[in-house]
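Morning run. Coffee first, then this:
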Amino acid sequence: MSLRNGLTIAIAAGLGTMGVTASRLWLAVLITVAFAALAYLVRAVDLSGAAVGFILTFILFACAGPGGFAAVATVFALAWASTRVGYRRKQDLGTAEKKSGRKASQIAANLAVAAVGAIAGMSPKWRLFGLVAAAAALAEAAADTVSSEIGQSTNAPVYLITNWKLVMPGTDGGISLVGSLAGIAGAALVCIVCNLAHLLNREQAAIALAAGVLGMFADSYLGALLERRQVVGNDTVNFLSTLSAAVAATVLVVVLT
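And here it is:
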């Protein structure tokens, strides 16, 4: 028996009862390895970010199927594109993303909650909650990145979310109308992809969108209350924001469905 066949049999025996087929796992490995390599080559992530991104994206693909991967790919595309909008201005502000790309902790902060949701969604009992929570976390990750990057690329006024005073672009907890609208659009695109990829129906996608947008504003509040005071770092704020989106999605599923 070849090593490949032996691994296939072992995987199928160990995970078959959880609804994950060996063929999906092999497909997930191939696609997510290529995806991580592409992200590294275009300098969206550094080597550590590519490694962690591969692991978490693989989990999402293996547990949630192609729709889970499509949602992650959408988040990646939005983050990569929005980071490059107005890059020179962001360099002048001192807020530009490093040219080496995002590191492992940044990727984990944005994708870990979604991966846990996808794992939970493998259980028939928790499938609805897990998948909607995962989609909401991904929508929040997209909304947060897009709103921040687009907001900093324009001359739009920025207000601190806690007291609505004008602040410099890039200030933790600062929001702008342009950035917020861009963030909502980014979250909507992720949820539309989830629907088109048959991960969620329209009602579930709408719930994920609402929760993702709530998470985006939670990110701003946490940035103003905690990060601005140097209580926690940006990665912690991003993780808590995706978690808040997932929790909000779970509550909304209970209330509305």
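Residues 65-256 form one domain. Good start to the day.
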